Amino acid sequence: MSAGRLPMLDRRTLLIGGLATITAAPAAARGRAEIWTFDNLKRIGGLAVRCEGGPRVIRSPLGRAIEFDGVDDVLFLDAHPLAGASRFTFEALFRPDGGAFEQRWFHLESGGAGTDPTAKTGSRMLFEIRVEGAEWYLDTFILGPGYRQPLIVPEKRFPVGRWHHVAQSYDGTVYRAFVDGALQAQAALRFTPQGPGRASIGMRMNKVSPFRGAVRQAAFTKGEALSPDAFRLPIPR
């Protein structure tokens, strides 16, 4: 059955196994990567930063990072680094520090300043977490014309207060989510590239679900779904 005929999965459906092979991208499409390092509050990835609240630069074992208070700290950048990509890998190094149950901490959105991020239609990619006491689990989400897909596994939990690597990827057929290089969930997806737009870090773009913790780096690879041994960012050990 082709990917286009597979049923869309609802918000909590998981598809583990049976789709394990990552399809290789054409050689000509490989190698296009952009890395953002969150080591200052003025420019990230060559882009001007707009801050709200009081995010602050801290020192960490991985280098300088930006810490968010889980109340009103947020960064806005005028770019969607994966716009136009038909295959991609989106990685981040972050440290969740507990707090509220639902935290939407990295949001890529197509469209300009007039985009309504609360709408049920549009195009966006998100990293989210759910916090239960001293543990968290990953929730990735992707939305666009004809597709709407979360990947979430409440049983796969990790300790707060530590640095972790998270990733989501699409290889032309399958959408996947990873924590520290380990596959969390995957689903067949009929994806179409997203358009230019903007990003928020620290909460969702409409200023809900703030994040408590820190972000060190993000990496955006166009044209290829990387395997964990080829991720651009290091996996903390």
Tell me about this structure.
- This protein has 237 residues and is mainly beta.
- The protein has one domain: Sandwich (Jelly Rolls).
- The chain has strands spanning 32-37, 43-44, 47-48, 50-52, 56-58, 65-69, 74-77, 88-96, 102-110, 124-132, 135-144, 147-152, 158-159, 164-170, 174-179, 182-188, 197-201, 212-222.
- The strands form three sheets. Strands 1, 5, 6, 8, 14, 15, 16 and 18 form an eight-stranded antiparallel beta sheet that branches.
- Strand 10 (124-132) and strand 11 form a beta hairpin.
- The radius of gyration is 16 Å and the shape is globular.
- Mean pLDDT is 87; it is low at 1-30.
Q: In which range does the helix fraction lie?
A: under 10%
Tell me about the largest β-sheet: 8 strands, antiparallel
Query: What is the CATH topology assignment?
Result: Jelly Rolls
- The number of domains is 1
Total strands: the figure is: 18
CATH class: Mainly Beta
Q: For the CA atoms, what is the radius of gyration?
A: 16 Å
CATH architectural grouping? Sandwich
Helices and strands, in order, run as EEEEEEEEEEEEEEEEEE
Task: Output mean pLDDT.
Answer: 87
Uncertain runs with pLDDT below 50, 5 residues or more? 1-30
Cα distance spanning the termini: 39 Å
Shape: globular
Structural class: mainly beta
Tally of DSSP helical segments = 0
Strand percentage lies at 35-45%
